[in-house]
Amino acid sequence: MADHSYSQAAIAAALDACAREPVHSPGAIQPVGCLISLDADLQEVRQVSANLEAVIGIGVDDALAGLPEDLLGRELVERLRRELAHHDRLPSAIISRLGPRAKSAPFHLVAYRSGSRIVVELEPTHPDDGLELLDKVNELLLEISWIEDSDTLLQTLVRRVQQLTG
């Protein structure tokens, strides 16, 4: 019979190491999306990715000189403020339109705390995409990032894979 205590200990150690591994690194964003880094109170734009203008139509200098509401819109900033008040990340990815100066197409948005900043990652959605596989996988990753025990993690993964594959 196999020694299950060793394998469970190894699994626990691997899960612990994984939990400490930074999933999001500011500055590392796919070229189709962009990144906006805000102060913890969502009052100032601190940093943006170089491709911001190509993705949302607002130049880097204008973005850095403006307010978060100029980029994201008042409603979205208030939603982020509410949802991040007691959590380190949004409970799931959202699709939203941005502020009046940004391109009007909807964007796939993920937001989380990174040190003393709030990082917002944006990726344009495509009308024919809907909530396709990437969106579903991102939602799964966000869901499982909150899970602390291996039994719940495995049950959640099985359930979500069944949903994805039918």
Task: Considering the chains and any ligands shown, give keywords for the structure.
single chain; alpha+beta; elongated
Largest sheet: 5 strands, antiparallel
Task: Please state the structural category.
Answer: alpha+beta
Instruction: Work out the strand percent.
Output: 15-25%
Write the H/E string, N to C. Answer: HEEHHHHEEEHH
- Rounded average pLDDT: 80
Query: Count the helices. How many?
Result: 7
User: Strand sequence of the main sheet, in spatial order?
Assistant: 2-1-5-4-3
How would you sum up the global shape? elongated
Cα-atom radius of gyration: 18 Å
Helicity level: 40-55%
Distance between the termini: 35 Å
Q: Total number of β-strand segments?
A: 5
Identify low-pLDDT runs: 1-5, 21-27
